[in-house]
Specification:
The chain is mainly beta and 718 residues long. The chain is globular. The strands form 13 sheets. A seven-stranded parallel beta sheet has the order 53-50-70-68-66-63-60, with no helix packed on it. Strands 3-4-10-9-6-7 form a six-stranded mixed beta sheet, with no helix packed on it. It has two helices and 71 strands.
Length: 718
């Protein structure tokens, strides 16, 4: 028995020894990711310019843009982005950009990088198209000639392309049709002329010419890495990219455009903005044309020399227009800045970007947006490179003339389209504003900018976004300059024509909303979200759906999401609310009393020009010839139709005078039929079904209490 006990103890010790050996294995965790870049950034449709080396982002927005509550759209390689202690969500979080804003990007390993975003508002005289692209292909803008040239891939259909653009102007039109970036389609089989209007109603004309690449085309037309543009040598088939000092070349993603059919490195297909490659050695991109011929581009990436010691941007935060003019060719280099009249120069804080490792004034290290200096005399900034080389920038600050007393923009916050038209040539000067129907004029608060020192109405000092006034009569704004001279602006507010608009509620979140079904004969082109409820997702037919979790779906035919009532919370409850709101909107539109027009054309309105107002018929309505809806941007139209609405094949309902589809409401008790290749405008509130013929299009919304039927149709949210 003692022998057995001894044997048992030996077995237990052996097991414990084995556990100890296993426990001593190498269990070190993998290192955490240190990525923390902002890779793209835009505000209100204006794309930011990212300087990765300096960690700055510059954005120029159109004149009149209010900077106090803009929502940024961005992408990041980090695990979180904050401004101060506030977490930032792309497309959601609003911030005040009246002064530079610092974004802190945190990596998985808890390290951080700070990007400074500076937003500039274009001047009132600005009317340039600053960026332009079609179907992801960037255009070449010749500013002096006012031309835009684009070569798109072979086989591209030029008849209905939507341009993505940014402009410093107030409005942009093709003919009489207002253009919306990424939305408005045009036929580019011939050159398209864009008319850009500034805040003074002065215009500039840009001619866009689009060429489809030949079938043998196989060029790389643009190439960049992490926001750094490459130099493409089309003759030598080489691309050279110089990255900021310290860039890790082992896992970079290229953004490129190509006229070819496919692009590969080795056997790996390359997708712009997606595919990762190691650029520590040159990489060969093989571009295959539509006719299967190939061209090879060799991409060579180098890291910038550490002798860089430039100041690339210089300004004073909080001073509009106080951006430095940098001269890099003189010795020493110079920076000149003009600040508003009355500025105290003794304690100014500069915002700057530099390629150097250290910036000093005298022996004091300078931190952008933090270090104050006395600029009553010239100040010398010394920039030191990583290799010790020093560049000197002499900064001279000048105070602007004190006679400035302009109002440069004027609007009413919260009122769509209520932007003032400023006439600086009249005496006294004038500002004209049109506000939506039903607006209470007795207590409006204006948002304005001025170059003067003070603005008053009567004896009351005016503060932008704060001071209310009664605009039932003309109001005189008196602007006083720093030298006490004055300028008077007479502000006249006009109410838009027509009835009050129909409130869509949550139904307005969808470009197509139906109770029973939405079907398509591919390929339709739909811009906006579509949904069925109480019908299930299975009643979205012809779309080749791809489910996104349990709350939405996508389709190649839809720029947006697709929803059904059988999806999980919050989708199902959102759709219940939207359908209820759709019914309420229909009832509201149908019940409006006292029509301005009764039984116009006995129900035939083809060939008509329809001015703002409430229209009522006791029959159905047909449109057998082209018709026009004419009015201003805030005017409203409501059409009450107890029968069917029919638009004949190849006939067009178009807009003029600035009229907007979002302010046009068609209440139809019967069916709606939009004929083959016809075009329609407005919000359709239908009690039964809506059918769009082959190739038909609408700029508006289709809200049906039964089904919506499409056939290679185009539906664009207004």
């Amino acid at each position: 028995m003692n022998a057995c006990k001894l044997f048992s103890k030996i077995r237990i010790m052996a097991v414990l020894l084995a556990v100890f050996v296993v426990g001593c294995g190498n269990n070190d965790p993998a290192p955490l990711d240190a990525s923390k870049s902002l890779t793209s950034y835009s505000l209100a449709g204006a794309t930011g310019t990212i300087n990765e080396a300096a960690k700055t982002i510059a954005v120029t927005v159109p004149n009149g843009t209010a900077l106090t509550a803009l929502v940024a759209t961005f992408t990041s390689t980090g695990t979180g982005v904050k401004i101060g202690t506030t977490t930032q969500t792309s497309g959601t979080t609003a911030n005040n950009f009246t002064s530079p804003v610092a974004y802190i990007v945190t990596a998985a390993d808890a390290s951080t990088a700070t990007y400074t975003v500076t937003v500039t508002v274009s001047p009132a005289t600005a009317k340039a198209i600053t960026t332009y692209s079609l179907a992801g292909v960037a255009g070449t803008i010749n500013e002096s000639a006012k031309t835009i040239s684009i070569t798109v891939p072979n086989g591209t259909n030029l008849t209905a392309l939507a341009a993505t653009f940014t402009t410093t102007g107030k409005t942009i039109k093709v003919g009489t049709l207002a253009q919306t970036s990424g939305t408005t389609t045009n036929n580019f089989t011939t050159p398209v002329v864009y008319l850009v209007t500034d805040s003074n109603n002065v215009t500039a004309t840009y001619t866009a010419t689009v060429i489809a690449a030949a079938s043998s085309a196989k060029t790389i037309t643009a190439y960049s890495l992490a926001g750094v543009a490459g130099t493409v040598n089309a003759t030598a088939k080489t691309i050279m990219v110089t990255m900021p000092n310290g860039t890790n070349l082992t896992a970079l993603v290229a953004t490129f455009t190509s006229t070819g059919k496919t692009v590969k490195i080795g056997t790996t297909t390359q997708t712009s903005g997606v595919t990762v490659n190691n650029f520590t050695t040159p990489r060969d991109y093989v571009v295959t044309a539509a006719d299967n011929t190939t061209a090879t581009y060799t991409v060579t990436v180098t890291v910038a020399a550490n002798s860089a010691n430039a100041i690339s941007a210089f300004s004073f935060a909080g001073f509009t227009g106080a951006a430095g003019v940098i001269t890099q060719t003189t010795t020493p280099k110079t920076i000149t800045v003009t600040v508003p009249s009355g500025t105290d120069l003794t304690n100014l804080v500069a915002t700057f970007t530099t390629t150097g490792t250290d910036v000093k004034v005298g022996t004091t290290v300078q931190t952008s947006m933090a270090t104050a200096n006395d600029f009553t005399g010239m100040v010398a900034y010394k920039v030191t490179a990583a290799d010790g080389a020093i560049a000197t920038y002499n900064v001279t600050v000048t105070i602007a003339s004190s006679s400035a007393k302009d109002i440069t923009d004027f609007s009413f916050a919260g009122l769509t389209g209520a932007t003032g038209t400023i006439n600086n040539l009249a005496s006294p000067r004038t500002i004209a504003v049109t506000v939506p129907t039903g607006t209470d004029l007795t207590d409006l608060v204006a948002t304005f900018t001025t170059t003067g020192a003070e603005v008053k109405v009567g004896t009351t000092v005016q503060t932008s976004t704060l001071t209310p006034n009664d605009f039932t009569a003309t109001r005189s704004y008196i602007v006083t300059a720093g030298d006490s001279t004055t300028e008077t602006y007479n502000v006249t507010v006009t109410m838009a024509l027509g009835p009050a608009p129909v409130f869509l509620g949550a139904a307005g979140n969808y470009v197509i909303l139906a109770k029973t079904a939405i079907s398509t004969v591919p390929a339709s082109v739909i811009t906006g979200d579509i949904a069925v409820s109480p019908a299930a997702t299975s009643y979205l037919t012809g779309f080749s759906l791809t489910k996104v979790g349990t709350t939405s779906a996508t389709s190649p035919q839809v720029t947006g999401n697709l929803y059904g009532a059988d999806m999980t919370t919050p989708t199902n409850s959102n759709l219940t609310t939207a359908v209820t709101n759709m019914g309420t909107a229909y009832t509201d539109a149908a019940g409006r009393p006292t029509p301005d027009f009764l039984n116009l054309g006995a129900g035939e309105i083809g060939g008509s020009t329809l001015t703002p107002g409430l229209y009522k018929w006791t029959t159905g309505v047909t449109i057998s010839a082209d018709a026009v809806i004419s009015g201003s941007a805030n005017d409203v139209w409501i059409f009450q139709i107890p029968g069917n609405l029919s638009l004949s094949a190849a006939k067009n309902l178009t807009l003029s005078g600035g009229a907007q589809a979002k302010n046009i409401f068609w209440q139809v008790a019967g069916t709606v039929n939009l004929g083959t290749t016809s075009h329609f405008e407005g919000i359709v509130l239908c009690q039964t079904s809506i059918t769009m013929g082959t190739g038909a299009s609408i700029n508006g919304r289709l809200l049906a209490q039964s089904a919506v039927i499409l056939d290679s149709s185009t539906v664009t949210a207004p």
